[in-house]
Amino acid sequence: MVRDRARVLVIDDEEVVRDSCARILTGDGVVVEGAEDGLQGLKRFREFQPDLVLVDLKMPGKSGMEVLEELERADPDVIKIVITGYGSVSSAVDAMKRGAYDFVPKPFSPDEISLTVARGLEKRRLTSESNALRRGQERIRRNMISLVSHELSAPLSAAIQHLEVILAGMAGEISPESKELIGLCNGRLREMLALTRTWINLAVLDPIKMAERFEKVDLAEIARGSMERLRPLADRHGVDLKLVSPQPVSPIRGSQVPLGEVFHNLIGNGIKYNREGGWVQVRLFEQDAQVCVAVSDNGVGIEEVHLPRIFDEFYRADPRRSAPVKGSGLGLSIVKSLVEAHRGTIHVHSRFGEGTTFEIRFPRFSPSPGG
Length: 371
What we know:
- With 371 residues, the chain is an alpha/beta fold.
- Helix 2 (38-48) packs parallel to helix 3 (64-74).
- It has eleven helices and twelve strands.
- The chain folds into three domains: 7-108, 3-Layer(aba) Sandwich (Rossmann fold), CATH 3.40.50.2300; 137-204; 209-363, Heat Shock Protein 90 (2-Layer Sandwich).
């Protein structure tokens, strides 16, 4: 947001303090507004959108510390300066822990408040410039990934098409030996194309843009859809699929397709890394105001040494476990990114030779994106 003049909000129950700050800072070219208590201050903060907030620690009603915490949640980048009438070091330290940038003791001189606010506004300017630079670099990165995507995918797709033509006999007869070798080449090229597309999906994942499209979604419905799509694979491997949801769970705020990818990947892994006669179970439940998903299997499991890195990009666990199964090592990394984009957490519990459980926790649906 580009502004000609910086904005400062003063939250203090003493009118004389608000007036003094306004006179001093207006003379410095700053736009100043005031609020007489914490609740009014938070309301004015949302309307005024200041660059810096001066907060009195000791106010009736909502305390200055509570106001600091709410400001920090609303906008971590806004500069927060504490006004304290009892200037103790402990209160200033507590304020810093809650996100305050600096503090000024009462009574303060015009120079003290002017200098402290000037330092805070300079910090705000540098932070804004840094964020703008980071956004610009991110746009460049995404544009480069888009370019690389095309430059990598196009020749791979063309090579696959040519090999398909040869395999179909449209370019003349070929020997069985040649056909087998060309088929192997075709298969590896398809793997490379799939890997390229998977990596690109991970690299361009934008949680902020994704969140803009979030709506109320039913995890049970998404889980059932993923299980139905994976049932033919489960049947081929002799693995039983089961959905357990003792009672309807609350909806969450999210997006159907990415969440479907989460279920598809975890259930698919449970099938592939299993044994004939095994099972994969998806359990939905609620706990501590969260909607929880547990995807469990009784398959080959993961050795403890590999668990800390299981969500790393391109990491594949013990070759003895993964050798029969083709994969990029990106699936779980994408799952973790998608879960975190939905403000969720994911953890894995596993015993080698006994099975694995992935547990995901999402906040319940709230009408407001921040809730």
